[in-house]
Amino acid sequence: MNPATLFTPVKLGAYELPNRIVMAPMTRLRVDGTVPWSLNATYYAQRASAGLIVTECTMVSPLSLGYLNCPGIYSAAQVEGWQLVTDAVHQAGGRVFLQLWHCGRVSHPSLLDGKLPVAPSAIAAVEELHTPIGKVPMEPPRALETYEIPEIVEQFRQGAKNAKAAGFDGVELHGAFGYLIDQFLQDVSNQRTDEYGGSIENRARFLLEVVGAVVDVWGGDRVGIKLSPSNTFYGMGDSDPEATFGYVIKALNRFGLADIHLMEPNEIDLQKAVLNPVSSRFRPLFQGTVITNGGYDRDKGNAVLMKGDADLVSFGQLFIANPDLPRRLEHNTPLNEPNPKTFYGRGKEGAEVGYTDYSFLQAS
């Protein structure tokens, strides 16, 4: 059997995908308040040639909000807005998963109608946020009471149901980058003394309960989870990340998931001497499909697949600037350069600038 490349078809959970190129989840902050609209549908449909699209992080409740103009999946209007997106992607021949998200402590009262963000422990995240009152440091969150945690698990369950109603092909849980699921998992942010804190098994409990709830809705073969064992965003870290994430990845095998989506360390993470590489280290522990992400281009993507360290590769910034990225990679043609100044939010020039106005290859 020949080694796989980016352009080899692959089975991911319930689906046969035409290629191994995934559009990574990327927060763009261009919805209408918290509701997706027609421009979002255009943006995702332009990129439907990806083997799979994973949407930007999407709130499961009002208290999940961490950024202005971030979408939700807890109201009827949001479900209708996302239906525009799924219809457009499907009409263009694509597959799309919704990323379910709770920001936890990565928020601010000015984003939450004066309420404190919630987290496993009352430990503030590091860095500043853009809020309605300007750029501010994050405040210590409120530690969740034990009885509140099942309520949040149910919010993820309802979000999964709403995603199904909106026409998605599946969901990905955001268990990475210092948001709520990750906050429970890693001991720098989880100092609890109840059944959700202390041992690795206890700190992993919330993650596994959320996975179980969402799998109850979708079945495992339409559910993925994103993990970032080397992440240091927002002051994250763990005293033994190899043991912590190794336990979680082995525990996930029982759910029959569509995939785990593993993030390689970025330059800042590497400076802090965290796990590197990630995918090759944890691949042997997981019995299913692995998506890898982290600075890949055509050659690096093909190389990781040929080595067998992952089954698919997700691309972020390259997909922002190249809506027809799979075609460009397959033919090894020049790529548009992404403009970081238009990554987030609506600029003065208009919401479509840096969003839906990147060029396609001309038909030959």
What does this structure look like?
α1 runs parallel beside α2 (76-91) and α3 packs parallel to α6 (205-218). The protein is globular and about 60 Å long. It has an eight-stranded parallel barrel, surrounded by four helices. A two-stranded antiparallel sheet has the order 1-2. Strands 6-9 form a two-stranded parallel ribbon. It contains twelve helices and 14 strands. The mean pLDDT is 95. α2 (76-91) links the parallel β4 (52-59) and β5. 30% of the residues lie in helices and 16% in strands. The relative contact order is 0.15. It has helices at 38-46, 76-91, 149-165, 180-185, 200-203, 205-218, 241-251, 267-271, 279-282, 298-307, 317-321, 325-331; strands spanning 10-12, 15-17, 21-23, 52-59, 96-101, 118-119, 128-131, 134-137, 142-143, 170-174, 223-227, 259-263, 290-293, 312-315. It has 364 residues and is α/β, with parallel strands linked by helices.
Provide the residue-averaged pLDDT.
Answer: 95
Query: Could you describe the largest sheet, including whether it forms a barrel?
Result: 8 strands, parallel, barrel
Distance between the termini: 32 Å
User: What's the total number of strands?
Assistant: 14
